[in-house]
Write a structure and sequence with these properties.
It is a single chain. The protein has about 300 residues and is mainly α. It is built from 12 helices and no strands. Helices cover about 70% and strands about 0% of the residues. Helix 4 runs antiparallel to helix 5, helix 10 packs antiparallel against helix 11 and helix 11 runs antiparallel to helix 12.
Length: about 300
């Protein structure tokens, strides 16, 4: 890496790009879904929902900066087809990107502690686990993101934990509807991460970053992406048919997911897959917004 005085610095817009706002739906959607599950059972709580949203959003910003830092110092981003990275592009000193990640984790921790004290103190332990998982995704000596476990972690932490945790902090329990929504959100969230890694298969393989997409190969990764989003839609039908029929309106999100699927099924490579990231995120966020809206009809 160059010496400290060769870094030109990043603009506010470039710092925002480094925070990867196209992934923020992964944080907002589970909080909306978890709150919807709580509202369905008459236990929605706006202040706790806001705190959960702060935790989730700060965590995803933190993990994005942490990935930027860790991948950058390893040289994984030397040849990249995705959006700008602050460290890999040598715009910002790596330590500053690392400090930004820790600042975001600090905000997540503060909001998480407040939320835990309002609901159940032992949730602080889950919050600490989430922060550790966020850092060690690409950080440390043996990052699990380099071992094909990234999508599993996203499914768990931005699906199961985020949705059911949000519901629990408001309702004091977890319903089967909340658990079903958690699996649906987790599947869509994992698919966002998966298509990002699908785009980077060639460069990740060359850099020794063995993601799930690298392990599965191009064709099977595309098949898994379709399966994950199809699973979310099937679970939407289950929720609507068995519990709360207005939930079927969330199938409208499939318009975005269908649009996202076209480049995936057409075999588009590299930068051509970047729009899939945004469309999948919009589909997931639309799904969660509709679920939240129709929960008031319960």
């Amino acid at each position: 890496m160059p010496s400290n005085n060769t870094y030109p610095g990043a603009t506010a817009r470039q710092w925002l790009t480094g925070a990867r706002p196209q992934t923020w739906a992964n944080a907002i959607a589970p909080v909306l879904a978890g709150t919807a599950a709580a509202i369905i059972h008459g236990s929605g709580d706006a202040p706790r929902a806001v705190l959960a949203g702060i935790v989730a959003l700060a965590l995803i910003i933190g993990v994005n900066y942490a990935n930027d830092y860790s991948d950058g110092i390893r040289g994984t981003d030397e040849d990249r087809s995705g959006p700008l990275r602050l460290t890999g592009s040598r715009l910002v000193q790596p330590r500053k990107v690392k400090h930004a990640a820790f600042a975001a984790f600090g905000i997540a921790a503060a909001a998480g502690i407040a939320l835990s004290l309002l609901s159940a103190w032992w949730l602080i332990l889950f919050g600490a686990l989430c922060i550790l998982a966020a850092w060690f995704y690409t950080g440390g000596n043996n990052p699990y993101g380099y071992r094909g476990l990234g999508e599993v972690a996203v499914f768990i932490f931005f699906g199961l934990v985020a949705v059911m945790g949000t519901e629990y902090t408001q309702a004091g329990s977890i319903s089967w509807q909340g658990a079903t929504m958690a699996v649906a959100v987790g599947a869509m969230s994992a698919s966002v991460n998966l298509v990002n890694n699908l785009r980077d298969i060639p460069t990740d393989a060359d850099a020794g970053k063995i993601t799930l997409a690298v392990r599965l190969g191009d064709t099977n990764t595309r098949r898994l992406w379709i399966l994950l989003n199809a699973t979310a839609m099937v679970l939407t039908v289950v929720l609507g048919a068995v519990s709360h029929w207005p939930a079927l309106l969330a199938l409208l999100a499939s318009v975005f997911l269908y649009g996202a699927s076209r480049p995936v099924t057409a075999g588009v490579q590299g930068r051509g897959l970047i729009p899939v990231l945004a469309l999948t995120g919009r589909g997931m966020l639309t799904w969660a917004l509709i679920m939240f809206a129709v929960s008031f009809l319960a």
